[in-house]
Amino acid sequence: MSLKVRRRIPELMDAPDLGEREHRLALVGLKRVNAISRSDAILWPTIQQLASQSSTRPLRILDLACGGGDVLCRLAARGMRAGVSLEIHGCDRSETALAASRELVESHELSNVELFSLDVQRERIPDDYDVIMCSLFLHHLDALEVVDLLHRMSQSTRQCLLANDLRRTTFGYLAAWVGCRLLTRSHIVHVDGPRSVAGAFSCEEIRDLAMKAGLSSIRLTTHWPQRFLLRWDRP
Known about the structure:
8 helices; 18% strand
């Protein structure tokens, strides 16, 4: 498969008729993938920096399309270990994902994490958060949808916008094909992993989309394994 041009193929995870059992198994698999790829570690340095500058109250963070909640739970755990005051909320349109997220939050006894239902493509993004972030969500969207989402995130955040996602590379595609099969038995993850990479954006493409969204002076950094982190700070 050529990866020079983005090929967005509908992912099984996004199917409206996806059964709860299959969805749950996929979320468990993605939790393992996120742990190995250290998604939370990509986001943590920025969050730690911003939290250290917010001495009078907890840094309020909203994770859009939070899925199974494992990334936000790991960020909350990092905050506790570092003695950093965070208030982390996650939202998703899937009740199955939210139920899995709540179970994970309860199992880790994280009192500073809350979850709620929100379809970020159709509903207003709350504007009372210091950081609005999304992790591995942009590649699910069309280019125009990415522009719209980034624009609305920038309009709503008090301080900072963060978007962590896949880069479309040959190595990333092969790593997804192999890694997803090693880390989980979920057929959905086996299929969706490589599809996610084929539907991801290059750094040049995401810069262009951010510009179209009205985001000037973005910071775009690359991270293992074949990820990027887009950061925009409110002037």
